[in-house]
UniProtKB/TrEMBL annotation:
Keywords: ATP-binding, Cobalamin biosynthesis, Nucleotide-binding, Transferase
Pathway assigned in UniProt: Cofactor biosynthesis; adenosylcobalamin biosynthesis; adenosylcobalamin from cob(II)yrinate a,c-diamide: step 2/7
The organism of origin for this protein: Paenibacillus flagellatus
Protein name, as recorded: Corrinoid adenosyltransferase
Organism taxonomic ancestry: Bacteria, Bacillati, Bacillota, Bacilli, Bacillales
Keyword Nucleotide-binding attached: yes
Pfam families per record: Cob_adeno_trans
Length: 190
């Protein structure tokens, strides 16, 4: 099988159920989700410490789920097959967020991306995830989508924030507080 097909040479690409322009909002949505998946892979690649083994396993599962998100977003005609992303996936993210958040010190100020390499890359994942979510919101205004994909991406960005803080904590790196930030967050109720 050849990698190139030449079918996109005139500016269109195949989606599940038809063809659309390569700059279609649908392609932007699943393309940004694919970009996010690449950054998740990069974050995984620097997690060589045993301290991050559970997080690395979670991120590897997330990569598969991001592929599912892209597949659902590429579905031009929802009647062609069932959606892959489910509410259970969102619920699991919430469980992971709570688990990792319980490890970290209270946060009272805004923080800047930084600290360990893993944490910095997880912050990149967070911002790309937010962009993917914005693209999905735009798509949802024009077409029917799997609403669970939007919920998943919304929760996933929270996961990345929490995972970034946890990576710093486990690696002995303090969060980088925004020095001009007043106290804007309440302390955790444990």
């Amino acid at each position: 099988m050849k990698i190139y097909t030449r079918t996109g040479d005139k500016g269109q690409t195949g989606v599940i159920g038809g063809r659309v322009d390569k700059d279609d909002v649908r392609v932007e949505a699943y393309g940004t989700t694919d970009e996010l998946n690449c950054f998740v892979g990069q974050a995984i690649s620097v997690m060589t410490s045993d301290k991050l083994a559970d997080m690395k396993a979670d991120l590897q599962l997330i990569q598969h789920e991001l592929f599912d998100c892209g597949s659902d977003l590429a579905l031009l005609k929802p009647e062609l097959r069932p959606y892959k992303v489910t509410a259970d996936m969102v619920d699991r993210l919430e469980t992971w967020i709570d688990k990792y958040d319980a490890e970290t010190p209270d946060i009272t100020r805004f923080i800047l991306p930084g600290g360990s390499t893993a944490s910095s890359l997880l912050h990149v994942c967070r911002t790309v995830c937010r962009r993917a979510e914005r693209r999905v919101v735009t798509l949802s205004k024009q077409a029917d989508i799997n609403e669970e994909v939007r919920r998943y991406l919304n929760r996933l960005s929270d996961f990345f924030f929490t995972a970034a803080r946890t990576a710093n904590f486990r690696e002995g790196e303090p969060d980088v507080e925004y020095e001009r930030s007043p106290e804007v967050f309440r302390r955790k109720q444990r």
